[in-house]
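Hi again,

Forgot to attach this to my earlier email, sorry! This is the prediction with magnesium ion bound. I've pasted everything inline since the attachment limit keeps bouncing my files.
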Amino acid sequence: MCSVCGCGSDSVTLENGAGHTHHHASALRYGFRAPKTRSPEQGETRLVRIEQDILARNDRHAEANREHFRQRGIFALNLVSSPGSGKTSLLVRTIRELGGRYPMAVIEGDQQTSNDAERIRETGAPALQINTGKGCHLDAHMVEHALQQLDPAARSLLLIENVGNLVCPASFDLGEAHKVVILSVTEGEDKPLKYPDMFAAADVMLLNKIDLLPYLDFDVEKAIDFVRRVNPDIRIFKISATSGEGFSDWLAWLASGLSEAATAGTGA
Ligand SMILES: Nc1nc2c(ncn2[C@@H]2O[C@H](COP(=O)(O)OP(=O)(O)OP(=O)(O)O)[C@@H](O)[C@H]2O)c(=O)[nH]1
Ligand SMILES: [Mg+2]
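Structure tokens for the complex follow:
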């Protein structure tokens, strides 16, 4: 059990549903055990200590991932949002629009199913699915295992789609260059105020599904005002994964990040 957010994630053991470790599976599966109940003697102090230990351990793995990316000049992004905001659709369109100009790889995080990894593989890009079971976020150790299997190319774009959830993934550094938060216009303008940690942790916000604006009451300026209250420096792209509107600026930002990562990489 993860004490940071109380989810059923177990960041230590890599196992399939039967409890065996698999190093060459097509999907990594975690956290399928029954949740443990908290014993009454576990006081607040102990919980805080466990939480700090989990985050400290996560940070060590995140640093290892970051070093892996730095050495190989990999530009890694952690895409976070509520379920259904369009993460996979955005990734599919991004991969197709970049059209093989850069090597790309995707790590997909969902509690269950390999649907999203299959959608990515249809583009021709390599993708590895991580199933978190009862866990509500990816952690850096899971990503470290995924990197061993996926082995993204040097100077590639690595896109990590986190579990759909606007709360828990905010606390877990995966070693990425940037968290990219997606807010879709069907979710309402107030999400940055209701879930501030996620919007504060992100460097970029993709305001997605703007093709639907003519049919909704969504106030774009209000949403931007709300997110800037939480994170004044956040970079915002208004975008539609369906129509492709706004993609040129997003792709230009990706190209500049890729170029910076490649220059900084040691070429190992
Ligand atoms: N109109 C419109 N629909 C979109 C857009 N982007 C995604 N969708 C739709 O939104 C739904 C969810 O899209 P996904 O890409 O599966 O969303 P997701 O964030 O990956 O979902 P989870 O992985 O389940 O969290 C699908 O029906 C998409 O077709 C968009 O820009 N415009
Ligand atoms: Mg998805």
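The mean pLDDT is 90. The chain is about 35% helix and 15% strand.

That should be everything now.

G.
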